[in-house]
Design a protein that fits this description.
The protein has 131 residues and is of the alpha/beta class. The chain is built from four helices and five strands, in the order βαββαβαβα.
Amino acid sequence: MVSKKALIITDGTESIQSIAQEISGLMTGFNVDICSSQNFDGKSLLPVDTFFIGCENPSPQSFSFIEEMLSHINLASRKCGIFSNNDESIKYLRDITNDCEADVKELLLLTESELNVSFIKNWLSGVLKCL
């Protein structure tokens, strides 16, 4: 059986990487790649069924390519999960994913002290619904 593919794009900060690792660990049946925005080339997004994007602060410099790419690509067939430990970053991520038309329904806002596996699992099931 071929597993589904997922990509998690982060800003590379320690707190966001921790959340990405938790998400990845809960995604049974998926081949999950985690990449920092500095190493993101765009092509890795094409073969995935779902993708996640997270950053600690809004508008990190390393997200400029991602912002540009998401404004010119149609990802309507893909699920997208947005996560951060900062409310302003959640708003920023929601804004940059609007144009690509990815199916963004679930937003995850939590701090490292709130890294609650059952909370993340619940959020993840909402993102992956119907996949």
